[in-house]
Amino acid sequence: MNHLNLSQLNIFSSYTIDRSDHNIGDPRTLNELSESGHARFLPITGYKVMVTENLEVVTIDVTEFRSQEYYKKPPVYLGRDNGLHYFAVSVDIGHGKTQEFRDLRSLAPLLDKNDAALLGYAVMMITWQRNHRFCGVCGAPTISISSGHILKCSGDNCGIEHYPRIDPAVIVLVENAERVLLGRKSDWPEKRYSAIAGFIEPGESAEQALVREVAEETGVEVAEVSYQSSQPWPFPGSLMLGYFAKASTDQIQLRDGELQEARWFTREELSRNLENGTFLPPTAASISFSLMETWFNQSSNIPFRMLCENNTTVR
To answer: Is the pTM of this model over 0.70?
Structure first.
């Protein structure tokens, strides 16, 4: 199994922008880049990005950037691609009749994978800056340095540097006797199910977290695990580590109240429920969908994605 190739197939992780210059320490160099004709700015507001009606990513050149009140903080340098230097910028509103802000989570499966990955990167950086406006040590305001990849405390007696935070999480498709274990939360859209997931806690390996999360949420015991691939998840800033697992038990007990329901599904049940509209898969942007698709297609004549696309309830 080529984990590198599998990871590159996941939405938000396929982009190959050159990040070698992202940690520019000289403000003058960064300023020259941002003021050049090769600079392109990506407007970000919350988890929303700007696209055209044709789902093309909107970038703003330096002239337009300086002429409008788009930005609230200094731009974050993302990297270089095909001679252009990309920056993420936190903005308040969109502009133009053919352009609008749209939620990246729902938009991502419709975008070119490189565009989705670049926008995901931009959203993660802007979200991190927004959530760390103050020092976690002394409470003083932070200031952006090193092209936006470090937030430094402005306190005279502190000055600690904060780096982008990534929260590692595991997501696992558990199998037992040609069935997979899926769960749903009460606040999800009706009929939506997904693989079991949870954050890795201090002092845990990813595999230990996987076993614990499955047991806590469903009462099922895991006997074997195998790594599949990873995915950056910009809502707000996680790294999802995807696994397949074999269960040694199949009795379900909802122990921690995290899930409203958990149940086993065969391929036949998934096919039937997709056809009659009683099953809604996770969004195609997620690694959960990828795990389900990989498992389903191992023993099915009809691709999982085709079944989902034929289901008019899937969006």
So the answer is: yes
